[in-house]
Amino acid sequence: MTWIEYLLQAAQKSKWNLELWVRYLNKVIQRDKILLSKKEIDDLTNGEELTSFQRVFLELALEKETTPWEMTVGMSE
Q1: Which residue from 13, 42, 52, 69 has the fewest beta carbons nearer than 10 Å?
Q2: How far apart are CA 15 and CA 52, in angstroms?
Q3: Can you tell which superkingdom this protein's organism belongs to (predicted)?
Q4: What is the per-residue pLDDT across 22-72, written as a single tens digit (0 to 9) for each?
Q5: Residue closest to 67 by CA, chosen among 1, 28, 15, 18
Q6: Domain range holding 21?
């Protein structure tokens, strides 16, 4: 399973659940690295599979020091 497949399944399972979406994102966004390629990020953020909220949260979680990034990396600490 690729990270894209993983996150698309995660998006369906966590469609209206912020905490669950953050837990899924925690698998690919860590304090010291992001496991997604630029192409994978573009595919996810430009696709129609994520809700608007999931898309925006993902975009913000990819930026260090934002609140969504802190929430995401904080899940594993």
Answers
A1: 52
A2: 10
A3: Bacteria
A4: 999 999 999 999 999 999 999 999 999 999 999 999 999 999 999 999 999
A5: 18
A6: 3-74
